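Issue: copy button drops trailing tokens. Both records pasted manually instead:
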Amino acid sequence: MELSGQPSQRGSDWDEVTRLLGRTPAGAFSVVVRRPAGSPVVIENAPLLDDGRPMPTRYWLVDAAVREAVSRLEAAGGVRRATTAVPQTEVAAAHSRYAEERDHTLPRSHSGPRPSGGVGGTRQGVKCLHAHLAWYLAGGDDPVGAWTAEQLGVSRDDFVLAHPGTGGIRRSVGVVDCGTNSTRLIVVAPDGTVLQREMRITRLGEGVDATHAMAPAAIDRTLRVLRDYRSVMDDRGVGRTRVVATSAARDAHNAEEFMARAAGIMGVRPEVLSGDEEGRYSFDGATAHLPTYWEETGRVLVVDIGGGSTELAAGYPPSDAGHGAAGVATRSLDIGCVRVTERFLSHDPPRRDELAAARAAVADQLALARGALPALLPEGLLVGLAGTVSTLACLQLGAAVYDRNRIHHTVLWRDDIERWLHTLARESAKSRLAHPGMIEGREDVIVGGAVVLAEVMVAFDRASCLVSEDDILDGLAADLLRRDVSPP
């Protein structure tokens, strides 16, 4: 990565940081947070100094005014107060995340001394609020940094975030979604062009509904895919990376094992999204580029049928003047395709009573969700996302080979969804694979997913569903690009 402090990179940032520190930096660094006018606020240090010694503190606060404010807070007992306010288990987890992310930046060939400790060079407790705030402002998951910012009345939105290690040069971003049924990747260029998409069926949430634990084999399957995705992102020159986990991670008591191992592979710790966050990012991705023929008819309803949960999001798309993200209401329901299958459809093919029980349970949850969402016009647009919807579209089109351009923004009619549900529910999982368009790895859960989509059509009285291959990954990537901006 390009760092100020390397002879070819020394310039205005080097001179300004030297002035702010009052001394010459002992190693390479990159400015990762700036004020809107461009002055450095936080720098990311290289893991090794110029003389080869390890540098334990990855992020330094260099802005004079912010540093002085933190010093005043520390002098008033801030370290002691932070120690009391933030649970020590959360502090310890933050130190571990910090060390994992820092150590990932070491050259693979390095065999000498390595940096040690966590935030501020310590392994436990709270030592330096400056270091915690620096990491937090740089986008880190640091509860002490968040507490410090709150005490000072400081917000991340007050500053401009550049990708760590780029010195303000924008690079492609990568987002990985570790879902209950599949693990997916998107790589997006700084101008918003999608460079690569990948999807693998990993079934991370296998058995989670019954055991509330991720199975060792499921964790291993997903980690193997993450290693592949890390290589793809490295080959693509990805800068800023975001890894998220959803329903399975929310439900499993041993999710921490997966998170820690995933962080070691990806260099960033997966974020466990809440159902509300999942719904909002899905809405953002699905509605950013609606077809030009769509006529605005009030709020759009987006349904994202995952493996463990289904998110419903109702709101106005970005193009609707006067309405934005604040107009989006969400509901997350524990009725994903894997969960419905494991909970209700125990036979292959499912028995009639099992199918009826599944439909009734899904309908009950949807009725509650509809009552909690804002009013929707009868002719309003329904947009469907994720593997169940894509697979049904492929089946309807007879698309033996997946063609994103052909599937994206096609329309599924309610009668067709019911017909496919009836057909697939009478077949074994193996027999379903004979249909052109059936995606391998989904044949055993497609009926559970189709139940959800069919009942959504009934609950919200929709005659059709617009299929969108733009989804939560696109929403997350767009958010990352908005935050990963160059200084003015």
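Record 2 (pasted manually too):
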Amino acid sequence: MVVNFTSMTLGERGVLAESRLQICHSKLNRQLRSDLTVSRTDAHCRLSAWRLRNSRRPAKTQPALDRTEHSSESVHMPTTLPLQPTLWRTCRVLANRTRLEMFRLLVQEPGQKVCAVARRLGRPRSLTSEYLRALEARGLLTARRVGRCVEYRLSCATNGSASACLVTALRALFQRETTAVEVVFRLATAFTHPRRVEIFRVLQNGPHSLGQLRAKTRISAWALVRHLRKLEARDFITQQGGLYAAVDCTHGIQKELARLAREK
């Protein structure tokens, strides 16, 4: 039907406009209700599919209770395969005075919880937890959950891991030296880069000139000189007459780090 607006009064035009507006609102409400019904149906289907998938998954096994402790809430932290630490990554963890302070505290008082270590050293609990996990990841500490807390202690020297001898050497040094933190920090920074480990291994075959080291390691001259200076400053190599040679390390933590650097 064709409506002639010119022949309508102002009131009739208003009534017509209001009628059309109501028709539009009605259509819009029907469309919204239809979309909502589809959304609810889709959400129900997704939820049913998720429940079906989870019902087929095997149940997770709970960690075994530690019968050696008196608390029924004491459980062993889940462990993975025996860790084979990379020396330069381990040295990067050790080249931090705060982590070394935490290690020393655990040497003196084994079995400390994260909150206790944070309180004793005046560090934030989140930072303490992160640093202790880093030491654990390198095989230097072991963790055990007790209730809602995590308890850390030094790794057992008889567990057969690659870091067992390093833990033994660190324990002996911290028990003997009051300046152990600075000693370990200084020596650990010698091998915080994989190229320095590679250079030290090459020098195990005898003295080398700078050119010979460049040919064997394929390291640029500028970087090679920088790495050699670091190793020399940490007393792992010497330089005489243009030749670089490895030092025969025979004592403590320096000997253990040199042994780990020689291993492939």
